[in-house]
């Protein structure tokens, strides 16, 4: 299942490679308009980012930042990671090795969203 409610305050998204990537982020954005939740986004299946994908991620980040919620990107392959670093996006998104670590981070930090780990380098 690409989008699942892991808990009341956390949504886990398993992104597919483009073009499904855009569809999933659109559905997620609609979900977040109805409720506030942290998001863990697994990019393991994503082999490249195009300008549309980057724009969707930036809009999603802006939407979540406005509601004091966190977006954590995880399981990023080397090619996609290099796209983040070349564009400078590695400094504005939060990253984690995998879903389990991202979920643990959110749970340990509590539900307030007070901690901010922008620009955390890919482990």
Can you put this structure into words, describing what you see?
By secondary structure, the protein is of the alpha/beta class. It has a single domain (3-109), classed as STAS domain (Transcription Regulator spoIIAA). It contains four helices and five strands; from the N terminus they run ββαβαβαβα. The protein has helices at residues 20-34, 51-66, 78-87, 99-109, and strands at 3-5, 10-14, 38-42, 71-74, 94-96. The chain has a five-stranded mixed beta sheet.
List the keywords.
disordered C terminus; 123 residues; single chain; 16% strand; alpha/beta; five-stranded mixed sheet
CATH superfamily: STAS domain
Shape annotation:
globular
Strand content is 15-25%
Number of domains: 1
- CATH arch. level architecture: 2-Layer Sandwich
Average residue pLDDT? 84
Q: For the terminal residues, how far apart are their CA atoms?
A: 26 Å
For the report, how would you describe the main beta sheet?
5 strands, mixed
The SS-based structural class is: alpha/beta
Considering DSSP H and I runs of 4 or more, what fraction of the residues is helical?
A: 40-55%
The succession of helices and strands, N to C, reads: EEHEHEHEH
Specify Rg, calculated over alpha carbons: 13 Å
- Total helix count? 4
Strand order of the largest sheet: 1-2-3-4-5
CATH fold-level name: Transcription Regulator spoIIAA
Q: Point out poorly predicted stretches.
A: 111-121
CATH class: Alpha Beta
Write down how many β-strands occur, each being a DSSP E stretch of 2 or more residues. Answer: 5
